[in-house]
Amino acid sequence: MKIERIDVFEGPNVYCLRPTVRMLLDLEGLDGVETRAVPGFDRALLTVLPGLRDHHCSRGRPGGFVERLVVGTWFGHVVEHVALELLWQAGQDVRYGRTRRHKGSVFAVVFEHAEPRAGRAAAVHAVGLVEDLLRGDEEGARARLGEVAAVVEGTRLGPSTQAIWDEARRRGIPVRRAGDGNLIELGYGVHRRRLWATLTDHTSAVAVDLAEDKVETKRILAEAGLPVPDGVAVRDEEAAVRAFFALGGKVVVKPARGNQGRGVSAGLGNEHEVRRAFRLAEAEARPGEPVLVERQVPGRSFRVLVVAGEAVAAAERVPPSVVGDGRRTVRELVRETNSDPRRGEGHGRPLTRVPLDAIALACLERQGLGPDDVPACGRTVWLRDSANLSTGGTARDATDELHPQVARAAERAARAIGLDLAGVDLVAPAVSRPLEETGGAVIEVNASPGLRMHLHPERGRPRPVAARILDALYGGSSARIPIVAVTGTNGKTTVARLVAHGLRRSGRVVGLAATGGVEVAGERLAVGDTTGPQSARLVLSDPRVEAAVLETARGGILRAGLGFDACDVAVVTNVAADHLGQDGVETLTDLVWVKSLLADVVRPGGSLVLNAQDPSARAIARGRSVRLVWFGGSPERERPDPAGEAWVYAAEGALWLEGGGRRERLLPVARLGFAGAGRPAYQLENAACAAAALLSLGVGLREVGEALASFGERDNLGRFQVFAARGATVVVDYGHNPPAWEATLPAARRLASGALWGVIGVPGDRRDDLVRAAGAAAARWCTRLVIKEDADRRGRRPGEVARLLLEGAVAAGFEPGRAEIVLDEREAVRRALTLAAPGDVVVVFYESFERVVREVEQAASAWERAVGGLAAT
Predict the structure, then answer these.
(1) % helix / strand / coil in the chain, to the nearest 5?
(2) Beta strands at 819-821 and 784-787: parallel, antiparallel or unpaired
(3) Model pTM?
(4) For a FRET experiment, which of 52, 240, 481, 581 has its CA 20 to 30 Å from that of 371?
């Protein structure tokens, strides 16, 4: 088998509303071969992946896939289930899959994933595993389970981040991973928040630096009246020994900067231990940084989590230990402890593996043991003096024991350092009494506190700390902004611009992603065909944006899915035969299926805006529970079916809103400068469509009317834009398919007292029959044709598209002598303007708006100079 392509969808897509992988897989010699034709394959597969026995498949019950396997199924289908099982075995909760023939022997294998890199790995290894078994290499097949598991483990969010992610999903808050680490982004626009584990975008950088500096932290806490242990910062071993004798009793030695218990030694009672501890701390300290020697506070280690100034959870932290059995060595007992599946390296699992490092060896030495000694049965052997979970410690929930005064002390400590989220470390005999009574002290204040001890305590009940963090971030406010998503074959960009214009006039800061570029608050952030998920995310990640308008094109949907999880208003302008033969879309029904994705992601209570004159709209509307709002049509000709809740249409020289038993006038058509007399009829439809979307968002009737009236030609560059050059009228438009030309050319014809020139070209990725149909559409209206090609030929040979356009025109009855081919767009425009006479109209369907306008303006300027010179003569 051969993998032709792997696409990873991170958001809703045409296959599933959850993230998926689509792999185009050429079965090559296995095409047409069923599993039953390969003796022993089913047994080998189920031996390596016994979990496949639980897969339902299309049978809808456990064992359904095995039935298909035995009866006979295609190998692309097998790869789909293998990929799902590989991810499931590695710990991802994935369930959706489907496999369909794409073209020839190539199948589209689609399956759900929870992380893009893991999804790609599952696709590759699923194919490899099946091929291994077909070769009889069962050992190689088994090895692939570990390969995928390693990728999943390496890309897993940490427990703290995962808890916040899961709580956000439970609340319906948009959340996405930003990059490969633990940085996540919550919400949209002005409600966007970023977190890296438990560091938020509101966490003070000064406070983080202070918390890391244990000397400065102690000084600030002491000034705030909080109890802290006596201590001395030292820079050499001799100074550490002097500090030990000066403090008296047992001491703790640790780096002055650091976290996660690295380099910390406690319970030190003699000079030898202090010297050794100093060297360990110095090895972990930054160059030039001191080491801290502190009097050890008697008691147990507690952590209080403070969120937005409130103590929300407490846990007792217990250093790692093993219990002797009289048979095994300390090293063997540690190995058994680390085999617990809850333990892993770093922070990826609820517990961390216990290191048998220099600090552990020093701790063992103080107990008279070495790693290869056998402790007596029942003897507890401590492996650390510090109780950090990051070095193998465990936790016991102590939230219900927390005395109010201890809670206030922790809150004061977090406030003194300036942290919005803090882990306050205390040592005290208990936290059920005030620190003043027990002789307890505040040891440290930690930025980015881990949540594992509160989420997965060894004893006691887990605490909903992620919920408390989200409460602090959002309170009762929404994490969303209004989103209008616009798709369709023609009119998308104009409608998107109109809606954005209306929302700006209503006082909102608007983000717009459309053909031509991305704008936020009038600032251009990107230029190009910005209608895919990346452009949508650019808008939604901008913290200025109060409302988003997102043009959402077919190509982006098919190749990368959506860049948002849901919208408030989905608009489908129309669906016509364009882009057929691309990306597996062969028929108009296929295209309707693609565009319908926006209808699938309308939020409860949201609106679906559809074209009453488009036959495909009824298929999109069928069975929807959202609010249906129609545009276009007229009471005299056709009424929407199903009726919907509102309808915007043109009649009696005005735009009207009908719904709820009422009929109200929006504004006279004469006030629509961009859609008035002499303009294409589709501009009036675009106005009605935009009005329907704005009204669906709650913009008032009068405000919508004023917005439409104030929308001018400069607000809609490149859409039936009219210029004068050399005595002729020039219309510049982005139409690039037969329906667009059939709507634009008649309107241009009405402007002409002479000939109508068409400077035409279409993208090279269109099917031959659609290119010819475009040529025929131009032939029906134009007097003369200048046929050009796009600079980006999209895989075509030079002159190929132009030849097809000419063939279509001639087949429609156009005289070949009235058409000429000039492939370069600039030269084609120059040629048409040179030949056009005063009173003629030249329509240019452009690839590059800037290139064409520059040529038109140069021609106009040259004409004016020539006319001026003649007048002077």
Answers:
(1) 40, 25, 35
(2) parallel
(3) 0.88
(4) 240
